[in-house]
Structures are given as structure tokens and as C-alpha cells.
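User: My collaborator sent over this chain with a note saying "see what the structure looks like." That's all I know about it. Can you take a look?
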Amino acid sequence: MSFRRWKKVDLTTLHKDIAALNDLPVPDLVENYDLLMQAVADKHAPIQNKLVIIRPRVPWYSDDLRRMKNQRRRLERKMRKTKLPCDVSSYWKIRDEYCLLLKDAKTKYYTELILDCEGDSKELIRVVNSLC
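Assistant: Without extra context I'll predict from the sequence alone. Here is the result:
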């Protein structure tokens, strides 16, 4: 993924560089506008690359778990910022609920997977090996 860090740009020098483009003749400015602006952008906020790892979704991870994880992360940030006892306790409560639901979802999924292998020892060994 490519991006530019525009928030770290010094606006005064960016403004000066853009204003310096006014010294160019108008036909050259119009003809090369994209190239000139890209050069200014590359000078102040060069393109940076970031490695984004896309992991496959696990079958037991549901939308409810995703929403609860988002809520847990939101409460964790709030707790770290305020350090109030009420925020700490609400974070602990949602954290415990999320961990319990996550464990239950995994257990239910793998239990059903193992039960589906009833009578097929080859498939059961494959499932057990995937767990290990």
C-alpha cells in the first residue's frame, strides 16, 4: 500500500514552493501542471510503502465477535487515556465477555468439525493435525 504523510508537511515551505510556480510562463504551467504538482508533493511528502498482510478469515470468527472486539479496543483506548476506575472496570467486563465468546465460538466450531468426522478416521486425523 502506498501513501503520503500529509500531516507532517511544513505548510509554510509547501506554500512557498507552490507560490514559486507562479514565476513560470502560463503555457508551461498549464501544460506541465500535473508533473510540477507531483514534484512538489514528492519533495514535501514522498510516497511511502507499507506492507499490508491480508490474513484469511477463520470460519469461527463472526461479525458479532468483530463488533465486540472493536468495542473492546475502543474501551481499552479510553481506559488507557483516562485511567478512571469506571473505565477500567467497563474494559475488564467487555474484555472478559469477548474472551469467553471467542473461546465458545472456537470450541463450538471445532467440536462440530470433529463430530462431522464420525466414522471417517482419515478425516478425523486430518482435523486433529490441523489443530496441532
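A starting point for your reply to your collaborator: The mean pLDDT is 90.
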